Every structure is written in C-alpha cells, then in structure tokens.
Amino acid sequence: VNHLLGIKYITPQDIELIFETADHFKEVINRPIKKVPSLRDITIANIFFENSTRTKLSFELAQKRLSADVISFSAAQSSVKKGETLIDTVNNILSMKVDMVVMRHSNPGAAHFLSRNVKASIINAGDGAHEHPTQALLDSYSIRERLGSVAGKKVVIVGDILHSRVALSNIFALQMQGAEVRVCGPNTLIPKYIESLGVKVESNLRQALEWCDVANMLRVQNERLDFNYFPSTREYAQQYGLDKALLDSLDKEIIVMHPGPINRGVEITSDVADSNQSVILDQVENGVAVRMAVTYLLASKIK
Ligand code: CP
C-alpha cells in the first residue's frame, strides 16, 4: 500500500522497519550536513485543514532533509475558503506533478476518503478524533530510545481520550509492539468503546501512575469541549494534572510524555514538563527522523 492512513493498517514488522530506518536518519540529521539526496525526484504537498506547529514543520523539515521538493498549503489562506472541494483542491495540486500528499483534516476518515479518490500516496497527519499515526510512531520510538524497548512496558494515556486521535493511534501501536496500555481520565472524556480494545480504564491518577512505566499526558482539547463541560479546567487540573510533588512521591521513576501543545498547569505543571523525566522535546526531535523514515519508505514504493 502506498499510504499511511492509520496504525491500524500497518504491521509490527512495518513499525520495526520504520524504526530501523529512523535510527539511520537520526544519525544523518546529527551530522554537520543534515541532508541526503534520496528523494530528489519526489514532490510532496503538505495540506493542512487544521492548525499545526509540530507536525507541519516536522514533515516539511523531514522532506527537505530527504531533498524532496515541498509545497505547503494552509486551508485558511486557500481557495477552500471560496468553496472549492477537497477532491478538486487536491487534484489541482496533483496536476502540478505532485507525488505524495500529507494531510491534516478535522473529519475522521478524511485521509481514507482522499486515498480512494485521488492518484497519489497519502500520509495521514491527523484526521479528527480518529488517527495520528506518525505521532504514535514517534511516541513509541521515544519510549524505545529511553527504555530500550516498547515490549513489556506499561503505558498509561491520561486525559481527554474522547477527542484524541493520539490516544487511538498510540493504543494500536503500543499493543502491536507488546506493551500494556491503560487510560485514565474523567469518565466524561473516556469513550464507551475503549475497553473493547483491551484497554483498562483507571479513574484514579495516582493509582495509574503507580502502575505505569510511561505516562502520556494528553492535551485537554478545549476547542472541542462545550463551555459547560465537566470537569472544569480547575477540577481537571486538581484530579488529573501531574505536578512535581505527585511525580516525586511515586516509588519509581516513570517517564512523562506529552504530544503538545501543552496547557501548562492543566495536564502537567512546568516543573514536570521541563524535568529530566520528561521526554517531550525528545518526542519532537524524533518526529523528524520518524517522518523521514515514513516518507522515504512510502516514496520508495512509488519511484
Ligand atoms: N502533536 C501535534 O500533532 O502537534 P501539532 O498540532 O502542533 O502538529
């Protein structure tokens, strides 16, 4: 398949190959000359219908490090605002001899829809509350880097599971690699189907942290919540926020992850985000190598 639409559609062998390839590219981007000529003959369009800092810049940088030609498109400044459809938009971009499309969209299934309707390789950079496959790959890669492997590790995903594409992709990726996954959060933010995925729900943050090796603290997606949603930000921070006192009171050293952007003082306090136990900026750094690997492996199938 010439697409990366979700973790659900790839295999543990695919993940291992992506990680081995990312190991190579991580070494490359730490050299004085950070570029390789691998994709000189490939043109990639990054089309973002939702805001992004990390994913958009990280894909762009990954593509440039591979020597691909890159064009970037933000829906807010485009003719989408004049009513142009998704398929028309992408087909017009493809007629400029583009080979691959990286897309973020607010609708779950948008990347699948595109893959069925246009002739290009599609990478899903986040589709609504569905999947964010490259985020899950870079998260697992960062666990593997810090703890040696993902297999056998206990990972708790904390917070707004209901609105999170990061949670679903992480659950698939972690389980596929032999990790045990739990979720923790207020029951208003835990989807009903979660236990059918083999994921236990823990409502008490301290108990969840005492169980885990890794805590992935998700952002509360305020933009997707009603004004009167329970819990309030203050209640959320009190019950599900991770501060240094709680982290230091655990009888082992866990690692703390966050996909960003952080609501400092809500999901985690600054002293946790900036501590030695936090791998948040490692996640961002690894995102470039992992996205280089995904792009390189997909492009090698269309060359
Ligand atoms: N983690 C993540 O997807 O961040 P952005 O929304 O900034 O891309």
UniProtKB/TrEMBL annotation:
<feature type="domain" description="Aspartate/ornithine carbamoyltransferase Asp/Orn-binding">
    <location>
        <begin position="152"/>
        <end position="297"/>
    </location>
</feature>
<feature type="binding site">
    <location>
        <position position="54"/>
    </location>
    <ligand>
        <name>carbamoyl phosphate</name>
    </ligand>
</feature>
<keyword id="KW-0808">Transferase</keyword>
<feature type="binding site">
    <location>
        <position position="165"/>
    </location>
    <ligand>
        <name>L-aspartate</name>
    </ligand>
</feature>
<feature type="binding site">
    <location>
        <position position="104"/>
    </location>
    <ligand>
        <name>carbamoyl phosphate</name>
    </ligand>
</feature>
<feature type="binding site">
    <location>
        <position position="132"/>
    </location>
    <ligand>
        <name>carbamoyl phosphate</name>
    </ligand>
</feature>
<dbReference type="InterPro" id="IPR036901">
    <property type="entry name" value="Asp/Orn_carbamoylTrfase_sf"/>
</dbReference>
<feature type="binding site">
    <location>
        <position position="135"/>
    </location>
    <ligand>
        <name>carbamoyl phosphate</name>
    </ligand>
</feature>
<protein>
    <recommendedName>
        <fullName>Aspartate carbamoyltransferase</fullName>
        <ecNumber>2.1.3.2</ecNumber>
    </recommendedName>
</protein>
<dbReference type="InterPro" id="IPR006130">
    <property type="entry name" value="Asp/Orn_carbamoylTrfase"/>
</dbReference>
<dbReference type="InterPro" id="IPR006131">
    <property type="entry name" value="Asp_carbamoyltransf_Asp/Orn-bd"/>
</dbReference>
<dbReference type="GO" id="GO:0044205">
    <property type="term" value="P:'de novo' UMP biosynthetic process"/>
</dbReference>
<comment type="subunit">
    <text>Heterododecamer (2C3:3R2) of six catalytic PyrB chains organized as two trimers (C3), and six regulatory PyrI chains organized as three dimers (R2).</text>
</comment>
<dbReference type="InterPro" id="IPR002082">
    <property type="entry name" value="Asp_carbamoyltransf"/>
</dbReference>
<feature type="binding site">
    <location>
        <position position="219"/>
    </location>
    <ligand>
        <name>L-aspartate</name>
    </ligand>
</feature>
<comment type="function">
    <text>Catalyzes the condensation of carbamoyl phosphate and aspartate to form carbamoyl aspartate and inorganic phosphate, the committed step in the de novo pyrimidine nucleotide biosynthesis pathway.</text>
</comment>
<feature type="binding site">
    <location>
        <position position="261"/>
    </location>
    <ligand>
        <name>carbamoyl phosphate</name>
    </ligand>
</feature>
<dbReference type="InterPro" id="IPR006132">
    <property type="entry name" value="Asp/Orn_carbamoyltranf_P-bd"/>
</dbReference>
<feature type="binding site">
    <location>
        <position position="82"/>
    </location>
    <ligand>
        <name>L-aspartate</name>
    </ligand>
</feature>
<feature type="binding site">
    <location>
        <position position="55"/>
    </location>
    <ligand>
        <name>carbamoyl phosphate</name>
    </ligand>
</feature>
<dbReference type="Pfam" id="PF00185">
    <property type="entry name" value="OTCace"/>
</dbReference>
<comment type="pathway">
    <text>Pyrimidine metabolism; UMP biosynthesis via de novo pathway; (S)-dihydroorotate from bicarbonate: step 2/3.</text>
</comment>
<feature type="domain" description="Aspartate/ornithine carbamoyltransferase carbamoyl-P binding">
    <location>
        <begin position="3"/>
        <end position="145"/>
    </location>
</feature>
<comment type="similarity">
    <text>Belongs to the aspartate/ornithine carbamoyltransferase superfamily. ATCase family.</text>
</comment>
<dbReference type="GO" id="GO:0016597">
    <property type="term" value="F:amino acid binding"/>
</dbReference>
<dbReference type="GO" id="GO:0006207">
    <property type="term" value="P:'de novo' pyrimidine nucleobase biosynthetic process"/>
</dbReference>
<dbReference type="GO" id="GO:0004070">
    <property type="term" value="F:aspartate carbamoyltransferase activity"/>
</dbReference>
<dbReference type="Pfam" id="PF02729">
    <property type="entry name" value="OTCace_N"/>
</dbReference>
<keyword id="KW-0665">Pyrimidine biosynthesis</keyword>
<dbReference type="GO" id="GO:0006520">
    <property type="term" value="P:amino acid metabolic process"/>
</dbReference>
<feature type="binding site">
    <location>
        <position position="260"/>
    </location>
    <ligand>
        <name>carbamoyl phosphate</name>
    </ligand>
</feature>
